[in-house]
Amino acid sequence: MDTTQNLTMNKPVGETRLDRGVQNVIGKGVDRYEGPLKVSGQATYAYEHKVGKRVAYGYIVTSGTGSGKIKRIDAMAALSMAGVLHVVTDTKTAPRASADPSDPAPTPINGEITHFGQPVAMVVAETFEIARDAARLVEIEVEPREGRYSIFQERDKAIDPGQQTMPSNTLKGDFPKAFEEAEVTFDATYTTPSQSSSAMEPHAAIAEWTDGKLTLHGCYQLVSTNVKQLAKALGISTKDVRIIVPYVGGGFGSKLGIGPESVFASMAAREIGRPVKVALTRQQVYQATSRRSDTIQRVRIGTRRDGTITALAHDTITSNTPGDDFFEPAGISTVFLYAGENRQVTHRKADVNILLSSSMRAPGEAVGMLALENAMDEMAEKLDLDPIEFRRRNEPKEDPQTGLPFSSRRLVECMQVGAERFGWSKRNRKPGTRREGEWFIGMGMASASRKNMTQQSSARVTLLSNGTALIETDMTDIGTGTYTILQQIAGEMLGLPLDKIAVTLGDSALPSASGSGGSWGANSSGSSVYAACEGIVEALAKKLGVSPDDLTLKDGTAIGANRQVPLHELLAGEPIAVTGTFKPGSTSNDTHQASYGAHFCEVAVNAVTGETRVRRLLTVATAGRILNEKTATSQCYGGQIFGIGTALTEELVVDERTGLMVNHDLAEYHVPVNADVPDLDVVILEDRDPAASPLAGKGIGELAICGVGAAVTNAIYNACGVRVRDYPMTLDKVLAGLPRETAQRIAAE
Q1: Helices 223-234, 260-272: inter-axial angle, 10-degree rounding
Q2: Which active-site residues does the annotation give?
Q3: Helices (H), 394-515
Q4: What's the predicted TM-score (pTM) here?
Q5: What stretch of H or E contains 639?
Q6: Residue 282 to residues 99, 117, 120, 209, 675: CA-CA distances in angstroms?
Q7: How do beta strands 557-560 and 552-554 pair?
Q8: What distance in Å separates the CA atoms of residue 203 and residue 255, rounded to the nearest whole number?
Q9: Is 282:202 a contact under the CB 8 Å cutoff?
């Protein structure tokens, strides 16, 4: 029988089957469901799918200028090359970059060049090599225009972008007056560069048309949204588009919106009547998809002499391509993290001829907390307070902006547990006082917070007549453990061993899920599986003649009314299929929901070279119920490594003459490697948040990056006394702040 089960989060959840833990699988550090396929090379990624007809290959032609109007595209030389099948030259509707996830479709080229490396055309050929070589023969004539390639040059022209991820202006009280009257004040500006998601799998797609319907194998995070975007770009109905995404080799936000490779591949496949494969080169991934915006952030704090904050302002300028409205919401945590009656959080957007800026892991907090948590450290020193004590004194009892109660908040506990575990009491508050040879040693810390969100999500769970279960949803797994988490939820709810549960993900023909983004994926899609399982439990209870509360499910049997019946016998050849749909409800509006944590870092800074080495890094986090201890911890490791890169190495360098990203590959865009990463320590505190989701859980994947970079740079200051407010804190910047005589003396020793 097929039924539906709807669940809207209008009140906090009470005790559930997940709390009883009869099957004892929820929360456990279970190995990944798809792990054996990945490590053995059997997991099929977008570019690897085999399709029925002979495949053609596409190679995208990109712009060699940063701003202008396309006058002519001459593809004759390319078309005359043996093996070339077609050249897509539709500069009206083809995309100029990936789509922002909130947009109905990618922004079309419309005859304009808006950034260097923008897709302009695509050659289609019998082989990849032919397509690549022919692409060099395509001539693009552009009427050049003066480009704008620097956020600093455009900062005075920045505009109010209005409501996006958050309001562009969040105000309370009278900040200017309170700041002027404050007994102690702090005012500093911090800058962060553009960053690239640099996912391991490059953007790729295979498009195939059959009887007017499109099937696309891609690598995307939000399947149902991507179907709508692709259909809109092609001018067809969503009913005629199917996207299949079983595995994604990392996304970090760069695969939230439909990419140019998919639109170009679909256009070409429709034209030539054959499947078309397209993979962006690594350089094209950097130049033609999306980036995290660079920022200029001014933070002002006013306090009483005892450290009580009376005035707090965080004003940010971000950049984006002309016509694209997204802004990096750098102040999204500043709004609620610390107390203070008078508050000002603003965002402005500068138009530049650089690649689209869009959501990248923890959009807002990831870079906003670099500035905020450095400013809190600097202010603590000015007040002669320990950084943890300063934060503790400004711990709010309720959301300081709205007055809403916190659904759960254990930030102070995270700091206390972390301080004890890390040995914070041994830290010397005076910079430059601990030395090992030519290395200065220092400790730093920072808070972590990430606003919690859930999205509508659906999943179908079928309890088959043989007593096994199947989960089906278009939810994606971008390396975060979705397969495993959904399996664990169903296992606990239905009392099944995990090897009796199969999971199918990433196919738009299946029930529409939340997708992977915003750290909402696990609890949104997991809640839909939970709802479906609730429906199955009710059906099984009816078959056994008991109420659902009196039914126990364990090890494939139903227990109730003094009976224990194997599920396959109770089903009697009739499977039960329930499509569960979860929707956020009033608890999202009645409480303020966020995940919290604290990072502690120890660094060594070389007094001669300025080189920084991270020696220890601890994260203590709280995020409601943890669904899988192993995958959650792994997400925290990834966030810690991400934060090390943000602090020390990662920066998209833009040539301000042309808009070219000069370090557009993994050789020159410096993500941390093994030698940069110490042994990492993660502690996740036991927690439940009954208002956050039916699972009582909150997001943790993006929380893990928030504040890490600030903990690193705060540690650098404690080590050597150098404070750099221009990220990343590369050795040249550190060296410039070290007294020359100190380096000479230590080198002589």
Answers
A1: 50
A2: 702
A3: 411-422, 482-494
A4: 0.97
A5: helix 629-648
A6: 18, 12, 17, 27, 23
A7: antiparallel
A8: 8
A9: yes
